[in-house]
């Protein structure tokens, strides 16, 4: 298959329309068959539920080329399950899991010319999303919805090596204890924009949010879960009902235990404890792991022994092992790598 003429290594992370996108419509209580269409625009009521009351959720995953030349996606079934939970919490109709995975596969196949070659570090980002499309003026769920998937080629997350970043403890809260922090709702991102713009102005790369109830426990950043490595090489991650269950983080915790033989634990983690840890990383689909070198809590600076030059040794092993599994260089657990072409 002929690839598009794209400078893969120098792609950034920005939207570039590809040939086809998937669209399914929910009307009169049922989803239609859905179809791949060429038009990259959406036409909806000026009073659509998504525009008035933010009734929308999304997912994010990647397709890429493995060492042996296959186009694959990483655990799309977990994106389907997570979107199911998001839809239920937002009073939106669920798009069935099997059909979700099938739609991901078909959309990637239709845009295979945009899947970057193995070794480029680039990938085809896949964005499934759903929104209330019919008019809603009194506050209630919309009657009609669209489920869509578009793809866009994105460049390597780390250009010229993964340099550790500096993050701040935010004075804002991301998610209330019984709110929507555990689902991938657009509204969670809308409210994170002000704090992240501010953090960037102050020279920080990211915000770490604390639990809103006590502001003593670590939760996550605006778009990535957090893992820590203790001085005795245990891999730990915060446990909380208001954290978004990252597929990358869940995969890394499995890799830590089953591939690297490390002890792992999901538990409440106090901000107070962080100064005693050896390594820290942010995990999500985009970067897999971004190493954190320094956490700033107002006038206190927590500098990890792994430093500001390179990933800590355990984070590096986790990164190498998970990317090895994704790229087909290491055997994958059953069902992790979905072959598309
Ligand atoms: C999407 C997201 C993540 C990362 O999840 P992955 O499935 O690993 O990509 C983490 N935190 C938040 C708030 C997110 O929205």
Question: Would you mind describing this structure in some detail?
Answer:
There is one protein chain. This protein is of the alpha+beta class and 341 residues long. It has two domains: 8-154, Aminotransferase class 4, branched-chain amino acid transferase, N-terminal domain (D-amino Acid Aminotransferase, Chain A, domain 1); 165-326, D-amino Acid Aminotransferase, Chain A, domain 2. The chain has seven helices and 17 strands. The protein has helices at 49-53, 76-89, 97-110, 186-190, 193-201, 247-258, 313-326, and strands at residues 21-27, 30-31, 35-37, 56-58, 61-65, 71-74, 123-132, 145-154, 165-169, 206-208, 225-229, 235-238, 264-267, 279-284, 288-297, 300-303, 337-339. The strands form two sheets. Strands 1, 2, 3, 4, 5, 6, 7, 8 and 17 form a nine-stranded antiparallel sheet that branches. Strands 9, 10, 11, 12, 13, 14, 15 and 16 form an eight-stranded mixed sheet that branches. A hairpin with a 2-residue loop joins strand 1 (21-27) and strand 2. Helix 2 crosses helix 3 and helix 6 packs across helix 7. The protein is globular, with a radius of gyration of 20 Å. The protein starts with 20 loop residues before the first strand and ends with a strand. The mean pLDDT is 97. Bound molecules: pyridoxal-5'-phosphate.
């Amino acid at each position: 298959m002929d690839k598009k003429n794209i400078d893969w290594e120098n792609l950034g992370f920005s939207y570039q329309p590809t040939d086809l996108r998937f669209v399914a419509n929910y009307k009169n209580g049922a989803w239609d068959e859905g179809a791949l269409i060429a038009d990259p625009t959406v036409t909806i009521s000026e009073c659509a539920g998504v525009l008035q009351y933010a009734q929308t959720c999304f997912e994010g995953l990647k397709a890429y080329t493995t060492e042996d030349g296959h186009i694959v996606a990483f655990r799309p079934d977990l994106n389907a399950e997570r979107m199911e939970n998001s839809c239920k919490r937002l009073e939106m109709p669920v798009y069935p899991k099997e059909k979700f995975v099938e739609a991901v596969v078909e959309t990637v196949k239709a845009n295979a010319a945009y899947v970057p070659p193995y070794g480029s570090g680039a990938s085809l980002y896949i964005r499934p999303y759903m929104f209330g499309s019919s008019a809603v003026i009194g506050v209630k769920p919309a009657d009609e919805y669209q489920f869509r998937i578009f793809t866009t080629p994105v460049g390597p997350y780390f250009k010229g090596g993964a340099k550790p970043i500096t993050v701040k403890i935010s004075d804002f809260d991301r998610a209330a204890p019984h709110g929507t922090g555990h689902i991938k709702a657009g509204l969670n991102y809308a409210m994170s924009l002000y704090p992240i713009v501010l953090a960037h102005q102050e020279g920080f790369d990211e915000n770490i949010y604390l639990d809103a109830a006590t502001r003593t426990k670590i939760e996550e950043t605006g778009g990535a879960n957090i893992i820590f490595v203790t001085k005795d090489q245990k891999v730990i991650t915060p446990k909380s009902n208001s954290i978004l269950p990252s597929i990358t983080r869940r995969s890394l915790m499995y890799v830590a235990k089953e591939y690297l033989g490390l002890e792992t634990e999901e538990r409440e983690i106090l901000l107070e404890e962080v100064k005693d840890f050896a390594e820290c990383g942010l995990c999500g689909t985009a970067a897999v792991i971004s190493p954190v070198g320094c956490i700033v809590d107002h006038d206190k600076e927590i500098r990890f022994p792994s430093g500001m030059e390179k990933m800590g040794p355990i984070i590096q092993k986790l990164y190498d092992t998970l990317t090895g599994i994704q790229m087909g260089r290491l055997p994958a657990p059953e069902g992790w790598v979905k072959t598309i072409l």
